[in-house]
Amino acid sequence: MSGSEAERVEQPGPGERALPEPTLIVHVFHLAAQVGMALGETENPVTGTRDTDLRAARFLIDTLAMLEQKTRGNRTPEEEEYVAGVLTNLRMAFVRKSG
Predict the structure, then answer these.
(1) In 3-state terms, what secondary structure has residue 29?
(2) Segment 69-87, tens digit of pLDDT
(3) 77 contacts 18 by C-beta, under 8 angstroms
(4) What is the pTM (predicted TM-score) of this model?
(5) Residue 61 Cα distances to 32, 41, 95, angstroms
(6) d(CA 28, CA 34)
(7) Alpha helices (runs of H) in the chain, residue ranges in sequence order
(8) Which residues, other chains included, contact 25 with Cβ-Cβ below 8 Å and sequence gap of 6+?
């Protein structure tokens, strides 16, 4: 895809909002949001319900931990702080919910 084709695809259409730049922080944020839904802390936007699925939450937290390990040494200080904080908070939320 040429530069101009990529720009056309990325431009929001009428009534659409612009998408964020794909960054590690955005990716971690989205995974963390899924954990929040799996823990029943936030509403699932598709179903409108707050269901708890500890197995899914554990899988997503483990996925974030794997991502943290695989990107170690390649993150900016801001990314380092964000990823560490998110993992700590999610692990604590999981323990509270499963205890």
Answers:
(1) helix
(2) 999 999 999 999 999 999 9
(3) no
(4) 0.82
(5) 8, 15, 12
(6) 10
(7) 3-10, 24-38, 54-70, 77-98
(8) 78, 79, 82
